[in-house]
Design a protein that fits this description.
Helix content is 41%, strand content 20%. It has helices spanning 2-21, 47-67, 72-99, 108-111; strands at residues 115-120, 128-134, 137-145, 156-163, 166-171. Strands 1-2-3-5-4 form a five-stranded mixed barrel.
Length: 176
């Protein structure tokens, strides 16, 4: 019975430590075969999943030994069932948490070709400011004109290039 309680305690301790100190970092079991299955969810070989399996095994095995007169092998088989149940439930919950996280990474490919409106006009070689919606968020950039021409405030523009934090824009002509 003490072995089941010990396994439960170690697994629970790892879960508590990952709750306090963990974030997106996780410890994965690595092998010589590189299987990069980055599916946006928890790794089945990650520390959290191993700890969940230990908690399920320890709790089910301890519960079976403490409440019945079954043999150690029967309690161990019950522990395996508890581990699988806890692992599946934990994986589904962790997967839901990972899926709800939004990415804040915006690449140059996401920016180029976007349209927006000038918040501050561009006066020749001076910078203005453009607002555009990328990934559901409004992003502001310093902007300069593609041909150093002046562009009035409120004019719709298209982003054609990006250098550092400054985008190059061109006026979108109305086709009326």
């Amino acid at each position: 019975m003490i072995i089941f309680a010990s396994i439960f305690g170690v697994g629970f301790g790892v879960l508590v430590l990952s709750l306090i100190f963990g974030s997106d970092a996780d410890i994965d079991v690595d092998a010589d075969i590189d299987l990069d299955l980055d599916h946006g969810g928890p790794s089945i070989f990650g520390a959290k999943m191993i700890a969940l399996l230990m908690v399920g095994f320890g709790a089910a095995g301890f519960g079976m030994r403490a409440t019945t007169d079954v043999s150690m092998s029967t309690a161990s088989l019950t522990g395996v069932g508890g581990a699988l149940l806890m692992g599946v439930i934990g994986y589904v919950i962790l997967r839901a948490f990972y899926a709800s996280q939004a990415s804040s990474t915006i690449t140059n490919q996401d920016i180029l070709g976007q349209t927006g409106n000038l918040l501050d006009g561009i006066n020749g070689d001076r910078y203005g400011q453009v607002a555009c919606v990328i990934g559901g968020r409004e992003i502001l950039f310093l902007a300069r004109s593609e041909d150093a021409a002046s562009i009035e405030r409120g004019t719709p523009v298209r982003i054609t290039a990006k250098a550092g934090n400054v985008v190059t824009v061109q006026k979108i002509e109305n086709k009326n």
